[in-house]
Design a protein that fits this description.
Radius of gyration: 24 Å
Number of helices: 7
Number of strands: 4
Structural class: alpha+beta
Distance between the termini: 52 Å
Strand order of the largest sheet: 1-2-3-4
Strand content: 5-15%
Order of helices and strands: HHHHEEEEHHH
């Protein structure tokens, strides 16, 4: 398979004419638009219950209504198994800036309402027709991001309802929270404070990380928020740096890209958070390119890397202001 989608069409594997070169550009342009629209935006709108009129369907309740013994069918509903639903949400947050940059660049090349060019191999039902509408895609991206932020905020409210019910999950999270505090008190290599954002509610953790001496983060103090879903581990925590930090693993809005060794263990999550920001010579991993500006410098030339380090150190210094 070629990285050029035009060349993957039967009979066009070696197309090199001037007309083909023009078609290649037009074909890639409409694939980019439709990938954003269908694979990213429409998919997330479906997961989040966003309707075409801009309203948002109420999410299913944390506690479904019990079924009556007199119901004709006492079986539980056969819910669709969607293992990638939460993964897609987290990936959206990681690559949100990249989506917006892609729209900004493409919008300069394609006017609102410009029709897609039809390729010579398209016809009948095998035709990708449509028009460019990048302002609308941007608006929908903004709204998806707002709904995702609202969803994470709702976790704290749902978590409080579990606290009020004295649910077993609350004691489980509280125990992990207390064990982590003790573990990091004994860890001489990492200076980390862990608190609950709301006393008694273990669904939002406030982490304060102090940069390790003799590293790029030396002298810095960083506030980190970890929101935990009542459906954990089916829904993974969302981690945000509330202290701005120019870092290739942290998006401009503070969203951190990290990979816990165990998805169901919160200590593994906290360990992975620290590893993600401390690792100074990681192997290249395209999944971690969540901050386009910082990543370009970090993985660029020696001059680029020096510029990255300067901006990182300035951010560390500002963290103590």
């Amino acid at each position: 398979m070629s990285s050029n989608p035009y060349e993957n069409e039967p009979g066009y594997e070696s197309a090199r004419s001037a007309e083909d070169k023009k078609n290649i550009k037009n074909y890639v342009a409409k694939i980019r638009h439709e990938t954003l629209r269908i694979s990213i935006i429409t998919r997330l709108e479906g997961y989040l219950g966003i309707c075409t009129d801009g309203t948002v369907t109420e999410p299913p309740p944390l506690f479904p209504q019990p079924r009556s013994e007199f119901d004709e069918d006492n079986e539980e509903p056969n819910l669709a198994f969607e293992p990638f639903k939460d993964l897609c949400k987290r990936r959206f947050l990681w690559y949100y800036d990249s989506y917006l940059l892609s729209i900004d660049a493409a919008e300069k090349q394609h006017a609102l309402g410009e029709a897609f060019k039809i390729m010579p191999f398209e016809g009948g039902s095998n035709t990708m027709s449509g028009t460019f509408n990048y302002p609308e895609l941007r608006r929908r991206l903004f709204f998806i991001r707002q709904v995702l932020d609202d969803e994470a905020a709702r976790w704290a409210v749902e978590g409080q309802s579990l606290v009020d019910m004295d649910a077993s999950m609350v004691s489980h999270l509280q125990r992990q929270f207390e064990q982590l505090i003790e573990a990091y008190k004994r860890n001489d290599m990492v200076n980390l404070d862990i608190d609950l954002a709301v006393p008694g509610n273990p669904f939002v953790w406030d982490l304060t990380y102090f940069g390790r001496p003799m590293t790029q983060l030396d002298g810095g103090m960083f506030k980190i928020k970890m929101s935990i879903s009542p459906r954990f581990p089916d829904e993974q925590p969302r981690v945000t740096f509330e202290t701005p930090l120019f870092h290739h693993r942290i998006a401009k809005d503070g969203t951190l890209c990290y990979f816990p060794k165990r998805n169901d263990d919160l200590q593994s999550h906290v360990d992975a958070i620290i590893e993600a920001i401390e690792e100074e010579h990681p192997p290249y991993d395209p999944r971690t390119l969540v901050n386009p500006e910082a990543s370009k410098l970090f993985w660029g030339s020696e001059t680029d890397k020096k510029s990255y380090n300067r901006q990182l150190r300035k951010a560390v210094q500002r963290s103590m202001d």
